[in-house]
Amino acid sequence: MWGFWQPPSDQADDLRVITRQADLVELKLLVPDGGPAGGQARKVYFLDTPSLALKQSGIVVRVRERAGREDDIVVKLRPMHTRNVPGWLRRAPGFHVEVDAMPGNYVCSGALKQQLGKGSVAQALKAGKPLTSLLSARQRRLLSAYAPCALDDLTTFGPVKARKRRVKVRGLALTAERWVYPDGSALLELSTKCPVDEAAAVSARISRALRKDGIAPSEIQHTKTELALAQAAA
């Protein structure tokens, strides 16, 4: 039923528990990279300690600089257990819970996003300000509650250069995002978001459409963030 995203039989019960906690499911799939493609240009930065203390604590801080559009900064808890989330965070504007689904891997994530003005990231970098200066008061509160370190301990990693565009596969709308890492390696991810109760049907339709077009998943499936932080650690 889930197509490429079919969970192993021994994880089916866990998946049902995870999806009950979420607002949306984001289906993600790495496919063989076909090289440069058009789309909206962006630069992606991550904030963490040199030893990746945030990552090891299940926290991701991502900053996006988007050409011609508002920049943004997000603090993610991944994995997140909603029963442990304080009420102020669950009710905070810009906070949402979703399941990140990749073949054989499902994780519940909580994200608190803050929209920034156009050029905010470039202006901060030009002025020599740390990107932590872009965090909102709520994001700082979140990090103070969950992070194992102080904001002053965080280092900026990146940028990862990316392009994002909408594509159609046999009439199905997907998002294609290509990331080029500082070492020159690249990946191409196809994704879509859908309500939790539609995830199984949507994933099955996408899988059938991709198979008909001869598109198969890459042998190894990683999240874009995992690879970015792995390079940072190296």
From TrEMBL:
Name of the molecule in the record: CYTH domain-containing protein
Organism of derivation: Paractinoplanes atraurantiacus
Lineage, top ranks: Bacteria, Bacillati, Actinomycetota, Actinomycetes, Micromonosporales
